[in-house]
Amino acid sequence: MDTPKYKRVVLKLSGEALAGKEGFGINPAVIKSIAEQVKEVAELDVEVAVVVGGGNIWRGKVGSEMGMDRATADYMGMLATVMNSLALQDSLEHLGIETRVQTSIDMLQVAEPYIRRRAIRHLEKKRVVIFAAGTGNPYFSTDTTAALRAAEIEADVILMAKNNVDGVYNADPKIDKDAVKYDQLSYLDVLKEGLAVMDSTASSLCMDNDIPLIVFSFTEKGNIKRAVFGHQIGTIVRGKE
């Protein structure tokens, strides 16, 4: 294909993806690799928004299981996503890509507040926009944030970039050698079969708004670009059966 299939995308990155093999913290080499792939796409005049998780620093669910108040634990997780977002912004701007971080919780010294119309304007000006601090509410995951922001900015697709799996399987491929990879699924299939693609709230939101989702591995360089061009990589989950 000579032109990208999707013109406005939401790239969803898990916090764990930023940690690399260490499994904790921010790996500068991994951040740089992601930034280089985002730059490659942004230079094609594709409008790129990014949602980053915070699991490499803190997971609210784990804190809750340890006896912490769930809302407090989740707010801590939101702060972790801001740290990841700032690290990614810095890496992108070192590569010459103009970037804005917008947070769902006001922290004006480090980022803009999330304002839908302003986010869309940044995208129209070909700036990469990173949505941080989740939805700003406890009990909601960054998967749900990606689905919500994609609906709000009218994105063409959500690109779910993974660092340890190359699509959606009927079982964990690291445990079950006979696990089968799906090329295509519907959100109804995902919900019925309880597949670990994204949480049920995010899946329902994508299904209701007919937002396609591509699940793929970003560890192979160029895969984000391939996904944007509509090449068959990973698994595509569609809003309708």
Write down the secondary-structure element order.
EHHEHHEEHEHEEEEHHEHE
**Class by helix and strand content?**
alpha/beta
Strands of the widest sheet, in order across it, are: 4-3-5-2-1-6-10-11-9
Strand content: 15-25%
Describe this structure in words.
- By secondary structure, the chain is of the alpha/beta class.
- It has a single domain (8-238), classed as 3-Layer(aba) Sandwich (Carbamate kinase).
- The protein is 39% helix and 19% strand.
- The chain is built from 9 helices and 11 strands.
- The protein has helices at residues 15-19, 28-42, 60-65, 70-94, 116-124, 142-153, 187-193, 200-208, 223-228; strands at 8-13, 47-52, 99-103, 112-113, 128-132, 157-162, 168-169, 181-182, 184-186, 213-217, 235-238.
- The strands form 2 sheets. A 9-stranded mixed sheet has the order 4-3-5-2-1-6-10-11-9, sandwiched between helices.
- The longest helix has 25 residues, at 70-94.
- The protein is globular.
- The two termini are 26 Å apart.
- The relative contact order is 0.16.
- The model has no long low-confidence stretch (mean pLDDT 92).
